[in-house]
Amino acid sequence: MHRLSDGRAIPDGDDLTIGDDADLWRRIPDHPNMRIFDEELGRMRPSSAAFEDSGPDDPMSALLAEDDTPARALSGQWVGWWLAVLPAGAYRVQEQRIARDPTPEDPNHVLVVGAKTRRARRLWARTATILTHPAPAER
Amino acid sequence: MASLCPSADIRVDYAPSQITTASTSDQYAFAPSAELRPPVVPEWAPLVVGRLREVLALPANWNRRGSRAVEMPAALTAFSILAESASFDTPAPDVFPTAAGGIQLEWARARMDVEVEVSPDGAAFLYVRDHESGEQWEGAFRRTRTRLSEALRLLTIRVRLRNAPPL
Question: Does the beta-carbon distance from B109 to A118 stay under 8 Å?
Answer without folding.
Answer: no
